[in-house]
Amino acid sequence: MTAALxxxxxxxxxxxxxxxxxTATSGPLAIIAGAGSGKTRVISRRAAYAIExxxxxxxxxxxxxxxxxxxxxxxxxxxxxxxxxxxxxxxHAAALAQLRHFWPGRHDGAPLPAVLDSKxxxxxxxxxxxxGGYRFTPAKDMADTIEWAKVRRIRPARWxxxxxxxxxxxxxxxxxxYRDYERxxxxxxxxxxxxxxxxxxxxxEADAEAAALVRSRKRWFSVDEYxxxxxxSERLLELWLGESRDLAVVGDPDQTIYTFTGATPExxxxxxxRHPGARTVTLAENYRSSPQILELANRLxxxxxxxxxxxxxxxxxxxxxxxxxxxxxxxxxxxxxxxAVGAAEVAPAETAVLVRVNAQLPAIExxxxxxxxxxxxxGQRFFDRREVREALRLLRRxxxxxxxxxxxxxxxRLFVERLGLDDVAADAGSEGRERAASLELLLGILEDLAAAxxxxxxxxxxxxxxxxxxxxxxxSADGVNLLTYHRAKGLEWDAVxxxxxxxxxxxxxxxxxxxxxxxxRRLLYVGITRARRFLxxxxxxxxxxxxxxxxxxxxxxxxxxxxxxxxxxxxxxAGRVRVLPxxxxxxxxxxxxxxxxxxxRWRRERASTDGVPAxxxxxxxxxxxxxxxxxxxxxxxxxxxxxxxxxxxxxxxDILAVIDGAS
Length: 663
Ligand code: ATP
Ligand code: MG
Fold this sequence. Notes:
Elements: H1 16-23, E1 29-33, H2 39-52, E2 61-64, H3 68-80, E3 87-89, H4 91-106, E4 114-115, H5 120-128, H6 139-151, H7 159-162, H8 171-187, E5 190-191, H9 193-206, H10 208-217, E6 220-223, H11 231-241, E7 247-251, H12 266-269, H13 271-274, E8 279-283, E9 285-286, H14 291-300, E10 310-311, E11 320-323, H15 327-343, E12 351-355, H16 361-370, E13 375-377, H17 386-398, H18 404-419, H19 430-452, H20 458-473, E14 480-484, H21 485-488, E15 493-498, H22 514-528, E16 531-539, H23 546-551, H24 559-562, H25 571-578, H26 593-610, H27 614-617, H28 620-629, H29 634-638, H30 645-662
Helix pairs in contact: 1-2, 4-9, 5-6, 5-8, 9-10, 9-11, 14-22, 15-16, 15-25, 17-18, 18-19, 26-28, 26-30
Magnesium ion (MG) binds near residues 39 and 490.
């Protein structure tokens, strides 16, 4: 332990509300505050303050974080404050350690069962036995729904009554898969991720001795990102707490972004009711972002009872809001923007591009690679994805002999027949969409290669994909950060770019209910509030996101006037950030409902003639985009997202006829 400094140092650079929270070291405490207001900072200071004032011995503290990475950082912060060895863990990691300790004593000496690294292994065969097209339901989406059920403690037998229609397949079928999954898991002697919490909860509920021992070890708790706790982790927390009242929870209801896994901000909002005598502190000042960025964030999310975010940082350049006619123009801007913020002396590692889904990343990776800009993929890499690995294996094994355009068609046929492209229920959930998007993306790469080289053979394709895989894998640890909004939680960078703010991506197509749309809005709020000085938002679709449209400055149609004022030392670079208007569009496209209706009718008929589900013929967004764009030729139709060569061949002429008939 480094030398203990006077305790005042822990308070010096805090504002009065932060100080109030740090010095409230006993009893229940809720810190409800907006992004960048110092919540996470307060947690570490408060723990250090409690130790140094003798409120709690260091070894009785448990700081609960949302991810293992955040736990590591918290330990780092405590070490810097002179308190090495204070425990920071996720709910799961802490529960697992307890289970491991108690399990043998309660199971005739048997060690803790292995933890299933992924539900998919058990789910895939069960899904394969489902009737008809349901057998193509992505296992990941089934796994998400099982997780949702388990954190709400809904058993398979109760699913039909309590699960509503949230499963990707009919409730009775889902209940069956869920039941069989639980059965095969226990037959294999395994636990899954939620079981770690379920089993710990059951242990502590049933075994007073174990509960007493656990409570004697840790009795002073802080939970960060508490707006995303779920009923199961909340129950565990209650059991850990026992009679102790030393619980501090920290969160921002407007950053709730995990409701699809069963999380709910109700625990944060109802904290004072459940813990009589609780103190509630709100933090209003933001220490992260420029006033210009906060103005945007406050326009997107009003902040409710905790109020708007108040700026304390110096003025910065006004966030750029662009609309581009196509994805290429947007990618060019991302590259130019990375260079421009680099020229403003922002290190690549202090720069991030955030996306809604992983499948958006490869196009960006490729653009950066071509431009010689290093990047770091945070989270899953494209070439590590299961379907991408399957696709590459397939190409290596099958080696289609065709060349050029015929090769593209042959590969697409392979993907359709062997990997279920076209059958993937992209409407069913996030994984279906990601899987289809990955395969489409590989085909897109092939098409580009074939366009450049009509004699393209499979060897050249494999060599190019290898090159990209290596480029992705050798991501420089200090490159531009590429990650999803969900992963960006709690983090911050000097410069943040939020591309593809398109209807269908953000808000994501599956979000239909008001509550789901509200969560998409919160995601964008999380994205915007990650930025310290530079922020850019853009759309490259005919249907820009409703959120982007609402955030555009009034005169957005004249690109230069719209992207204004730079401030401070960043002036020149910000000026460069503002140029490159690409091809902004004057108005949002107005959907043609008559044509859309006609397209839907055609889809219904075609699906029933072919005996396939409607989504196999075309997705809703594809039809919507066709209705917008009204393509008059096959090449024009090909440019609509979701119209691969196979679909073009099968349905292209029909679709053009529908368009013709409707005009
Ligand atoms: P999020 O909601 O995004 O998780 P947060 O509320 O947890 O944000 P922190 O990450 O703790 O906010 O702090 C945001 C930034 O502001 C950090 O860089 C932190 O060091 C800085 N900061 C916090 N409080 C102060 C302060 N009183 N003075 C100066 N800087 C501060
Ligand atoms: Mg935080």
